[in-house]
Amino acid sequence: MADSRRLAPIARDTMAYVLAGGRGSRLMELTDDRAKPAVYFGGKSRIIDFALSNAVNSGIRRIGVATQYKAHSLIRHLHRGWNFLRPGRNESFDVLPASQRVSEDQWYAGTADAVYQNIDIIEAYAPKYIIILAGDHIYKMDYEIMLQQHVDTGADVTVGCLEVPRMEAVGFGVMHVDEKGQITDFIEKPADPPSIPGRPDTALASMGIYVFNTAFLADQLRRDAADPKSSRDFGKDIIPHIVKHGTAWAHSFNTSVVRSAAEYGAYWRDVGTVDAYWQANIDLTDVVPQLDIYDRDWPIWTYADVTPPAKFVHDEDGRRGMAISSLVSGDCIISGGTLHRSLLFTGVRQNSYSKLDEAVILPGCHIGRGARITRAVVDRGVHIPDGLVIGEDPELDAQRFRRTSSGVCLVTKPMIDRLNYR
């Protein structure tokens, strides 16, 4: 008689463990008060919702999230938006803050340590497989396909990978693979990344997604924890050790990327800089964006406030509530202002005669009368004074705000407060 468990999705025997403790310092002031995975994205979501949604949509029903840096807003979001998994259905959702469980003077020392310090919790659930995820990337992926490859190859670890321009790989783990897909070398964040054979301008980069048999990973973490020379990191220590002493296989993102009929490429973004964050949000205003957030077959789950609809008022020349090629969330009131190719999060108020062009406005902002904002990210709760102009004078912008080399301005409450507007 066939084992009925073998006929069930492998995801049901899997725990997803999301690493969400990073600050994301390249996002500058956007992460002064929140961890990178908690940063808002796409009008309603947080960055971490993409990895979590991928897990749930893939059929995984046991999830743990390790937090560390300024985690309050992240933990609050997780409790509000991800509390639908139920122990009575053999499901679980654990938020695992760094809590000095191993040593009274030790927080999470690295990505591997963030799993090791909670290994007893993981083992208590007894998942056969565990998938380690980064909580700070934007993409849609069916993890069940990667899990199936892991089982079929009998790998010690399976590493999610994607092709990137070679010199963009300096911030990734870079790997060599043989003709079968087995990893023969793994280098973490090389200054001069090796290229794919025959393709000198392209490198094979790690996505920070790893699949293990749970028992094998527990052994590796305990071995690593006993090594005083280890930096307690997956990319620097765990994966290179397995490549040398075991079997590591690469899994191509192209194999398991989820696309709707409207999507034409394998979309993956690290929105780790102000420029990349701004661009990824603005890209959603395209007529046919590369990322389809309207895909009902692969929804991006999140916590959403109960809000009234967006509202557009006034219809006079020069004072018309109007949005062109833009995304406007609930509880926004566009009162005689105009916006073009912009994205407004929940609860924004835009007053008369103001203009937004390629602007990303986070929740609860207030845009004053006659203000003009171009190519900018405005942080949560900022009140833009009447008549303020942002994005038209590079020298003045650089004095007042955080201005990137490509001309995108990041605007926060302290920056506005320093202007001393009355």
TrEMBL record:
<feature type="domain" description="Nucleotidyl transferase">
    <location>
        <begin position="17"/>
        <end position="285"/>
    </location>
</feature>
<dbReference type="InterPro" id="IPR011831">
    <property type="entry name" value="ADP-Glc_PPase"/>
</dbReference>
<keyword id="KW-0320">Glycogen biosynthesis</keyword>
<dbReference type="GO" id="GO:0005978">
    <property type="term" value="P:glycogen biosynthetic process"/>
</dbReference>
<keyword id="KW-0547">Nucleotide-binding</keyword>
<dbReference type="InterPro" id="IPR023049">
    <property type="entry name" value="GlgC_bac"/>
</dbReference>
<comment type="similarity">
    <text>Belongs to the bacterial/plant glucose-1-phosphate adenylyltransferase family.</text>
</comment>
<dbReference type="InterPro" id="IPR005836">
    <property type="entry name" value="ADP_Glu_pyroP_CS"/>
</dbReference>
<feature type="site" description="Could play a key role in the communication between the regulatory and the substrate sites">
    <location>
        <position position="68"/>
    </location>
</feature>
<feature type="binding site">
    <location>
        <begin position="188"/>
        <end position="189"/>
    </location>
    <ligand>
        <name>alpha-D-glucose 1-phosphate</name>
    </ligand>
</feature>
<dbReference type="InterPro" id="IPR056818">
    <property type="entry name" value="GlmU/GlgC-like_hexapep"/>
</dbReference>
<dbReference type="InterPro" id="IPR005835">
    <property type="entry name" value="NTP_transferase_dom"/>
</dbReference>
<dbReference type="GO" id="GO:0005524">
    <property type="term" value="F:ATP binding"/>
</dbReference>
<comment type="subunit">
    <text>Homotetramer.</text>
</comment>
<dbReference type="Pfam" id="PF00483">
    <property type="entry name" value="NTP_transferase"/>
</dbReference>
<comment type="function">
    <text>Involved in the biosynthesis of ADP-glucose, a building block required for the elongation reactions to produce glycogen. Catalyzes the reaction between ATP and alpha-D-glucose 1-phosphate (G1P) to produce pyrophosphate and ADP-Glc.</text>
</comment>
<dbReference type="Pfam" id="PF24894">
    <property type="entry name" value="Hexapep_GlmU"/>
</dbReference>
<feature type="site" description="Could play a key role in the communication between the regulatory and the substrate sites">
    <location>
        <position position="107"/>
    </location>
</feature>
<keyword id="KW-0548">Nucleotidyltransferase</keyword>
<keyword id="KW-0321">Glycogen metabolism</keyword>
<protein>
    <recommendedName>
        <fullName>Glucose-1-phosphate adenylyltransferase</fullName>
        <ecNumber>2.7.7.27</ecNumber>
    </recommendedName>
</protein>
<keyword id="KW-0119">Carbohydrate metabolism</keyword>
<feature type="binding site">
    <location>
        <position position="108"/>
    </location>
    <ligand>
        <name>alpha-D-glucose 1-phosphate</name>
    </ligand>
</feature>
<feature type="binding site">
    <location>
        <position position="173"/>
    </location>
    <ligand>
        <name>alpha-D-glucose 1-phosphate</name>
    </ligand>
</feature>
<keyword id="KW-0067">ATP-binding</keyword>
<comment type="pathway">
    <text>Glycan biosynthesis; glycogen biosynthesis.</text>
</comment>
<dbReference type="InterPro" id="IPR029044">
    <property type="entry name" value="Nucleotide-diphossugar_trans"/>
</dbReference>
<dbReference type="InterPro" id="IPR011004">
    <property type="entry name" value="Trimer_LpxA-like_sf"/>
</dbReference>
<dbReference type="GO" id="GO:0008878">
    <property type="term" value="F:glucose-1-phosphate adenylyltransferase activity"/>
</dbReference>
<feature type="domain" description="Glucose-1-phosphate adenylyltransferase/Bifunctional protein GlmU-like C-terminal hexapeptide">
    <location>
        <begin position="308"/>
        <end position="411"/>
    </location>
</feature>
<keyword id="KW-0808">Transferase</keyword>
<feature type="binding site">
    <location>
        <position position="206"/>
    </location>
    <ligand>
        <name>alpha-D-glucose 1-phosphate</name>
    </ligand>
</feature>
